[in-house]
Amino acid sequence: MNIPSELKYTKDHEWVKIDGDIATVGITDFAQSELGDIVYVDVDTLDETVEREEIFGSVEAVKTVSDLFMPLSGEVIEFNEDLEDSPETVNSDPYGEGWMIKIKISDSSQIDSLLDAEAYKSVIGA
Amino acid sequence: MIFIENEGNTDPHLNLALEEYALRNFSVNHDYLLFYINESSIIIGRNQNTLEEINQQYVKDNAIHVVRRISGGGAVYHDLGNLNFSFITNHDGKSLNNFKKFTAPVIKVLNNMGLDAELKGRNDIQVNEKKISGTAQFSTGKRMISHGTLLFNTDLGEVANALNVKMSKIVSKGHKSVRSRVANISEFLKDPMKIEHFRALLLEGLFEESEPFESYHLTAEEWKEVHQLKAEKYDTWDWNYGRSPKFNIQRTKRFTAGEIDLRIFVEKGYIKEFVIYGDFFGKEPVENLENLLHGIRYEKEDVTVALKNINITDYFGDIQKDEFIDLVYGED
User: What's the ipTM?
Assistant: First the structure.
């Protein structure tokens, strides 16, 4: 199971890459493998400010829809529109081309509450 | 496991609201089971384009409800001959996508009734190569719904009528339903049985599978909140139709006055782009029409209202307004 050490994680199986006050968010390798073939990524919160742990969208994989949660509070400033044409990228490259949204972080103190790779590893029992 | 009493409601808008309400509000310390039977309705998958799934005229003429659900998969037809079962549980990282786990007790009950039922593909229950049940899931945080249909004595002719799509040429990212060969459970029973009896047998069978079992009746306050969720979500055009993935539609028709070629882009149910091409001659610029239709709901009534004060021959020559409206929004 691929868990890059430079990323942060949540218990909801999302990864977060911090770059200044911008966070890029996707789902982990574990999450995509558990879900199976992803057929649709739905983000309906673009340009909205959403609180941490609130829902920012959902992902559908073979008849299973799962909600996606904000890892940090902030404004959803970008959605990876390439996923509209090729949602399967989330399966093939979850930490790269399969990223889902970018957030403008509103409270950087929340970053400390994210999990590091070691802590996430123990969440999934890897 | 706790059995949630839906009190015999057959309104699909209400039953889907009850299911989501229970998922989001009931105690995470229990598993729940909900049964519901809906009057004639089409239940659309979460990420489907409603217009690509239904026969609109038929649905309207026969007062068939159209309701979007929160789980994945394709459109299904429900009527009073179809029993829906829904397990609301925690997901332990193993239950997600594990259709085998929650269909197994249902299949066992069907087997005990003498049916040769088995799980086929990822999530269909089949008897003699025919689908009698389709299933889907939805998860949010720690909780999930695993639900399915059970065709007992549904009017299968209506399934074909209601889902016979008349509006084609839509290009969208929504995934279209795959049609399966279906059958009713009643066809495979030696002795005739009413759906109420089948429902009781299934409940009894599932009861044996899971030891402590009690029934729960929602409080008046809880029902109030269910009705609120129904009104705010499951009753709304924005959810049932508008929530479709964005799509493009091209519609072309030759009239005596010339050919009209429309390119329409619809997002969240609203017309975001509307361009008219063609070789007709009119004395007014079609940009006026494009501007009138831009931003309205992609619905026949809304298009009709928007064009109310328009003299259509000013734009296209000799065509009827109804013909133009049917071209914008109608069957092929």
Answer: 0.90
Which chain B residue has its CA at the smallest distance from A54's CA? B141
For A10-59, write each residue's pLDDT tens digit: 999 999 999 999 999 999 999 999 889 999 999 999 999 999 999 999 99
Residues B278 and B146 reside in one and the same domain: no
- For chain B, what percentages of helix, strand and coil (3-state, to nearest 5) are there? 35, 30, 40
Which structural domain range is residue B315 located in? Answer: 247-328
Contact between chains at A124 and B135 (C-beta distance less than 8 A): no
Q: Which of B45, B47, B97 sits opposite A36 (nearest CB)?
A: B97
The full set of domains in chain A, from first to last, is 8-109 (2.40.50.100)
B188 and B278 fall within a common domain: no
Which residues is B149 bridged to in the sheet?
A: B84
- Cβ-defined contact of A64 to B46 (cutoff 8 Å): no
Buried-state track B211-248, b at ≥16 Cβ within 10 A, e below 16: eeeeebebeeebbeebbebbeebbbeeebbbbbbbbbe
- Residue B296 maps to which CATH number? 3.30.390.50
Structure-token pair, residue A41: 């990524």
